[in-house]
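To start, an entry.
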Amino acid sequence: MGFLVLAVLAVLTAAATVWLVHMRSAQESDQDATFWYTFAGLCVLAPLTLIPAWKNNMASLALLALAAGSAIAMHMWLRRQRTLATAANDRAKLAATISATSALHQSLVARWSHYELDPAAAIDFPAMSDIRVPETSALIRAVAAAARFQLAEMDTADGAATYRCAVATLAEALVAAEQAAQCPLTTAACQRSSSTGELAS
């Protein structure tokens, strides 16, 4: 009966020591905490495992084995829990990134569709529908690329990064096309009028 009590205490002490070293030390952000938790655990374990050696060496060795096994098992369990938590955090960050990128993508498509579906906007900015304009042509390609990457697999960081880059390219292309469309003729005409103004000044 006495050995069983000592065995339970040794297992619990070893497991609690490892848990404190892993969890509490990280939470307290104290470099000395790891040492003191380990020291306290050893101070409790030493009498539990060494005192029985006076009467029975095998009992002491058995207690040491149980304590070591308990410590190793707790260490492996905590490491697995930390790995699972890290993976869950990475998945949450990835989902948030994809959601934000998708929302930006939809807003950019809606902004571009305004020039296509609104007759007044189509009349005011005809260059936005003219694929002969280089900026508009680049915009159409960017829209298609972003749509293609949106339908692709995005369950990895690389897939999400590729989609984010495609949406960023779409945003830049849309801004460039809008700036070019401010001239009712063509981009070249805008450039000529701009050059004429610079020469006049």
About this structure: Helices lie at 2-28, 31-50, 57-117, 119-124, 134-151, 157-181, 187-200. Confidence is low (pLDDT under 50) at residues 183-201. The longest helix spans residues 57-117.
